[in-house]
Automatic annotation (TrEMBL):
Protein's UniProt name: Delta(14)-sterol reductase
Listed Gene3D superfamilies: 1.20.120.1630
Entry-linked InterPro entries: ERG24_DHCR-like
GO function terms (MF aspect): Delta14-sterol reductase activity
Family: Belongs to the ERG4/ERG24 family.
Class in the EC hierarchy, top level: oxidoreductase
Keywords per UniProt: Lipid biosynthesis, Lipid metabolism, Membrane, NADP, Oxidoreductase, Steroid biosynthesis, Steroid metabolism, Sterol biosynthesis, Sterol metabolism, Transmembrane, Transmembrane helix
Entry keyword Isomerase: no
Naturally occurring in which organism (per UniProt): Tetrapyrgos nigripes
Source superkingdom: Eukaryota
Length: 452
């Protein structure tokens, strides 16, 4: 028995050396994360009830919204009755079934469609994960199937997402919660590599931030799978459903507004690009350093598809024609943004893969890693964020200026990227120490050259 106890003790010690306790909190600690957990679903539903035909437009008609709440209150005086009425508004069994079928379809595509296996960055335990990269193939297959279905049965056959919007939100939040709970419980099994930021010992905080770095079932990596497939591909199909609803209302595809086309082209281009460049995901902060918890699961499964598509949903009931000049200018903004985003990300990815075709200058650091100091990465420390922000703005402009709600995405995204820049700055300061100070002196701007 004794040798076994020693062995167990050794492996416990190894485990705690590899997985040190997290000693500082982000997001104002457990209370802050608890608050965000409550607020995120409220915002996702709020963007619907605050901007929809059901509540009288965007912003909503207050008397309509109040009378709808009053109905819930007066007809049932007991709390249980009010709760069940509210639940009745949010829950849609058919939407849940569609959602589960769609999720399962994505898993099956991951398993059966061909795809190259790509190696991730070496992890703290010295291991290298291999990811199956077939998200773009999944997108093409689902796009082909959906197009065939819409051509065969007409655009009205694909408007169900518009009509079951709230039910789909609920389905995605339930899925996010179940997944986060599952991976949290599994993270306590022996031999798991934990995220450096998600091992505080506080259940609420760790559940939110993500305790395990790369939860997986066999070779199925839960985090990267969710980040691209049920997240981005769902967003694309939500947009397509909105365009179908507009086509039905305007009497055919030929009458769909230019504003709807711009949002559709811009967002599907962006999604297609992310899926095509799937291997680049494996070098991002999300994959390398963040755990998979409720923050990421609700972010990718609910927040991305249902808040990034508000503009397309708005254009269903507030149809706008922009004309060639304005449409051209907005598309130009989108593609300039895309060019900056793609070029800068390519420069860094090639460099991180040991290539430097443009012969860019770099700083050699004591950590063994090098930092680019010319090209896009000589202009600011996150030129890719600038390109992303320009694209985001180009997807809101087609909705005009009647409501700030369709500018939610660009506003939130600016806050997210500014916060992300700070998190990355902290991360790089720890990794590169004095070299990071040297780098910051050489490249002083954070995101927008000469401005910020
Ligand atoms: P970055 O692509 O900017 O990556 C930051 C990392 O790059 C650093 O931690 C560092 O890692 C490395 N790095 C920093 N400076 C240099 C340099 N000068 N030369 C070489 N390597 C450098 O950040 P993200 O992972 O946050 O973003 C990736 C993309 O995803 C961006 O285009 C962003 O806009 C997009 N994004 C989109 C979101 C959305 O919701 N649509 C959300 C978040 C991001 P190391 O040195 O360890 O390699």
């Amino acid at each position: 028995m004794a040798p076994l106890r020693t062995k167990q003790k050794d492996s416990k010690e190894e485990h705690s050396v590899l997985n040190p306790r997290t000693t500082s909190y982000e997001f104002s600690g457990p209370w802050g994360t608890f608050f965000i957990m409550l607020v995120v679903p409220i915002i996702i539903y709020g963007l619907y009830f605050g901007c929809s035909e059901e509540t009288g437009g965007c912003p909503p008609n207050l008397s309509l919204a109040i009378s709808s709440i009053a109905t819930i209150g007066t007809q049932s005086v007991d709390v249980a009755g009010i709760t069940s009425k509210l639940w009745g508004k949010l829950w849609d069994a058919e939407a849940m079934l569609y959602y589960l079928a769609w999720y399962l379809f994505c898993v099956i595509c991951w398993a059966v469609l061909p795809g190259e296996y790509v190696e991730g960055r070496p992890m703290r335990n010295g291991q290298v994960k291999r990811y199956k990269a077939n998200a773009f193939q999944t997108f093409l297959l689902s796009l082909a199937l959906a197009s065939a279905y819409i051509i065969q049965f007409g655009p009205d056959s694909f408007t169900f997402v518009y009509h079951k919007w709230v039910g789909f939100i609920t389905a995605s939040i339930i899925m996010a919660f179940i997944q986060a709970g599952f991976v949290y419980v599994m993270s306590f099994r022996p031999g798991k590599l934990l995220a450096l930021g998600g091992n505080t010992g506080n259940h609420v905080y760790d559940f939110f931030i993500g305790r395990e770095l790369n939860p997986s079932i066999g070779s199925f990596d839960i985090k990267s799978f969710n980040e691209l497939r049920p997240s981005l591909i769902t967003w694309a199909f939500i947009d397509i459903s909105m365009a179908c609803e507009q086509a039905v209302r305007r009497g055919g595809w030929g009458n769909v507004t230019d504003s709807m086309w711009i949002v559709l082209i811009g967002q599907i281009w962006y999604i297609g690009d992310a899926l095509w460049n799937e291997p680049a995901l494996f070098t991002t902060m999300d994959i390398i350093s963040d755990g998979f918890g409720y923050m990421l699961s609700v972010g990718v499964l609910s927040w991305i598809p249902f808040t990034f598509s508000v503009q397309a949903r708005y254009l269903v009931f507030r149809q706008r024609e922009l004309g060639h000049l304005v449409s051209g200018m907005i598309l130009l903004m989108h593609f300039v943004g895309y060019w900056i985003f793609r070029e800068s990300n390519n420069e860094k990815n090639e460099f991180r893969n040991g290539k430097n075709p443009k012969n860019l200058k770099f700083l050699t650091t004591n950590s063994g890693s090098k930092l680019l100091i010319s090209g896009w990465w000589g202009l600011s420390r996150h030129p890719n964020y600038l390109g992303d922000l320009l694209m985001a703005l180009s997807w809101s402009l087609p909705t005009g200026f009647e409501t700030p709600i369709t500018y939610f995405y660009i506003t939130y995204f600016t806050i997210l990227l500014v916060h992300r820049e700070r998190r990355d700055d902290d991360h790089c300061a720890k990794k590169y120490r004095d070299d990071w100070k040297k780098y910051k002196a050489l490249v002083p701007y954070k995101i927008v050259p000469y401005v910020y």
